Amino acid sequence: MNRIVVSFLSFFLLFNLFISGASADTIEPKLQIKLVNYIGNQTQLTIRPTGDYLIQGSNLRLKNGTSYMVKYDSNRIIVLEGSTTLIQSDSVNLIPSLETNYLTINNRPYLGSFRFIPENSKYVRPINEVFIEDYLKGVVPFEMMAGWNKEALKSQAVAARTYALSYLNKVMDDTINYQVYGGYAWHPNSTAAVDETKGEVVKSNGRMISAVFSASNGGKTESNANVWGTSPVAYLTIKTDEFDAKTPWTFSVKKQQINPATIAWEQMKETDASLTSSIKTWMLSHGYAGKDIRITAIPILSLTTPTSGGRVSKGNITIEFLTKDKVDPSGLFTPQKLEYKNVPASQVRAMVGIRTMLSYLVTSATETTEAITVSGLGDGHGVGLSQWGAKNRADAGQKYNEILAFYYDGTTLSKEYTERPQFVIPSSDASTPSVVETPASGAAAPPVVETPASGAAAPSVVETPANGVAIPPVVETPKADTIAPMISSVKVSVDNAKNKTTISFNTDEKAKISIYIKDSNGKILTYLAQNVLTERGTTTKEYSTSPLANGKYFVGIIAIDESNNQASTLPSFDVKKIVPVKDTTAPKLTGIKVSVNNSSNQGTLIFNSNETAKLTVYVKDSKGKILTYLKKDALTKAGTVTLPYSTAPYANGKYTVGINAVDPSNNKSSAAASFEVKKLKTGKVIVSLLHVRTSASSKAKIIGVIKKNQTVTILSTSGGWYRISYGKLTGFVPKTAVK
After folding, report:
1. Residue burial 490-523, b: 16+ Cβ < 10 Å; e: rest
2. What would be the CATH architecture of the domain defined by 589-677?
3. Alpha-carbon distance 574 to 572, whole Å?
4. What is the arithmetic mean of pLDDT over 148-172?
5. Domain map (residue ranges) of the chain
6. pTM, two decimal places
7. Measuring CA to CA, which residue among 550, 612, 605 is closest to residue 575?
8. Residues 580-590, mean pLDDT to the nearest whole number
9. Are 179 and 165 in contact (CB under 8 A)?
10. Which residues contact 691 (CB under 8 A, 6 or more apart)?
């Protein structure tokens, strides 16, 4: 940077602090964000300023509404207007002439200033410097659904602010590696959440915490030590979260992926294409770069060693595969194998895909001869704030401070800053710049992301510095209106269940509005409005999607003001009509258990049904004849069914309990279980005194005496003797003494 410009900016930063009466500790800081997520790796970018931008270190300005090209060439950055080169340098810095100006990069708008640098001797990379509150307004609606309860959004805003402040003087990017940042694509609800918590952060013992968060903790929070191996902190504890959505997930993988008989490379197709694609992507960056791989089998996949928070920490996986370049002397592909035993569970998850295995909270893992199935709860690491938990807590009436207090134990809220420094109108020379007040609400209403409306906001009132030397405002000759209407807050809501789409947007001035629907081939299907003169404010239209097939469509919105300035935008929406899925799965009858008490002549049947169904339950004899029905076409809820019945009418022998289940879609299943009736015989003593002996012999020891007419239970027969029981007495008596 030019030394004069550096000194100039340093002086006016101090100047701003002085005239505002604020200390540096109370001033809102800026962040540097490397723009990657929506731009990718490009050798050239199209930019379009709304309001002028100064090219720092030169006398050049990028003009409002004009498109420019920023290119990488021979490790330098070139800015072109059409075919004319404006500047080429090792890096190019752009600074807005007004704080409310914004720059559109490849159709996405961003507030703040920009530095364009070469990256990897190949690409041009923009780094966006922006006030943290404006940054958060571009983060919160991309990290949490903007239509959710505002108290949940406020808890997300405070967590995101606390997280971001740990990266002052560092460069973050706009991806999930840090926080997803969508630029100047704001939503009114999330913007209000940021504004209402301005400057607030979460602290523990006077220091800002590590305010980590995930989508869903599965009903139980996890500690940082278990997930990342760092020293445990008091505010990230393990506890039950009854408000979390307990997001369920499951995946299955076939052990054999390719038929071994397939020998042609082009015909080798893995059964689980998505999961094996993830594994192959992992392999390409772990020793198999440039290889053409076919995964033939995944015979082992297991997850073990739960932490104190219940999440798996270790895993085993075996991959059998072929590579196109490795063949034996006969020309057959050579089988290869990767075996990982007792590796971190994070490696297994990275291999199968983090959107396949959503979390480490595994609830079940089953294995058959053909497949392995893993199920779990949650989405993400489960440490700190749960976004779904915050949403449900807010819906239940909890305030954002209560939500944060639950997820970050023993912490407090603190206001880190209160004011934003006044904006200095940049100048390319050493003359005194103008100072304007920052509008109380920050930036102007955000534009539509796809095609931002043109035109810069009007400057604020010029303030006299504290030293009494007035800085004269620039007096311009009134110009004709050349600023197009601003189309903002565009929202397209699709209700596929009702085949209805609602379109709403704001315009900042009176204009003729046209709204149309077109398909993905560019064909206009219908107009919802055509050149309708409309006052400034919100416009809402409803459209029936019943005639449309599933697919992507576009809403065209055109606004033309009274000076014939035109703005437009083209948001998309997807039609995904809900087709009822026919239930073809029969009810599952499991856990069948039959018990019989032959002493009391009672039987009990217990089983589980996994869905509500009409149940018929019967008992039949060994010849197949149905003796009785315990249930007949009885609609029964899913769960455990317990049916007691009497065996008194049944003779000794084997019997079968049959169960038929028919669900509401007429899917049928059946099951059966057998039981045996062995009723005990009884007899009456017919002698005056009956001696009970230890064995079937008249010489055996007498262990008791039973009087005449007493009833005894005959347990078994041994020659001319019965083995009987009477009360607590058990022994042998002659058959002739019992009738």
Report:
1. bebebeeeebebebebbbbbebbbbbbbeeeeee
2. Sandwich (2.60)
3. 7
4. 95
5. 3-22+31-131, 248-377, 487-575, 589-677, 681-737
6. 0.57
7. 550
8. 87
9. no
10. 702, 704, 705, 733
Parallel, antiparallel or unpaired: strands 30-34 and 171-173:
parallel
CATH architecture of the domain with range 487-575: Sandwich (2.60)
Q: Per the structure block, which two tokens stand in for 450?
A: 């796809």
Query: For residues 119-138, b (16+ Cβ closer than 10 Å) or e, as one string?
Result: beeebbbbbbbbbbbbbbbb
Tokens of 673: 């279980």
| Cβ atoms within 10 Å of 211's Cβ, excluding its own | 26
Distance CA 313, CA 345 (A): 5
**DSSP code, position 136:** H
- Across the beta sheet with 336-344, the strand order is 293-306, 312-323, 336-344
Among 618, 626, 682, 621, smallest CA distance to 651 is for 621
Put the strands of the sheet holding 613-620 in their side by side order: 626-636, 613-620, 653-662, 668-677
Question: Which residues are bridge partners to 725 per DSSP?
Answer: 713, 730
| Statement: residue 630 has pLDDT above 70 | yes
Mapping DSSP to helix (H, G, I), strand (E, B) and coil, where does residue 347 land? helix
Length of the chain: 739
Q: How many other C-beta atoms can be found within 10 angstroms of the C-beta atom of residue 31?
A: 23
Rounded distance between C-alpha atoms, residue 411 and residue 390, angstroms = 16
487-575 and 589-677, same CATH topology? yes
Starting at the edge strand found earlier in the chain, the sheet holding 487-495 runs 487-495, 500-507, 537-544
**Tokens 């079968």, located at residue:** 656
Closest C-alpha among 366, 374, 394, 379 to residue 246: 379
SS3 463: coil
487: nearest Cα among 520, 536, 528, 523: 536
Read off the pLDDT of residues 681-704 as tens digits, 9 standing for 90 and up. Answer: 888 999 989 999 999 998 999 999
Written as six digits, the tokens of 48 are: 């379009």
CATH (residue range 681-737): 2.30.30.40
Q: What Rg value do the Cα atoms of the chain yield, rounded?
A: 39
pLDDT-derived band at 463 (thresholds 50, 70, 90) equals very low
Q: Which residue carries 């991806």 as its tokens? A: 175
Q: Give the integer Cα–Cα distance in Å for 659 and 591.
A: 12
> The tokens of 652 are what?
């000794």
Contact 612, 586 (CB under 8 A): no
- Burial per residue of 282-320, b for 16 or more beta-carbon CB atoms within 10 angstroms, e otherwise: bbeeeebeeeebbbbbbebbbbeebbebbbbbbbbbbbb
Check: CB of residue 87 under 8 Å from CB of residue 58: yes
Angle formed at CA 534 by CA 531 and CA 535, multiple of 5 degrees: 160
Contact, 487 vs 524, CB < 8 A?
no
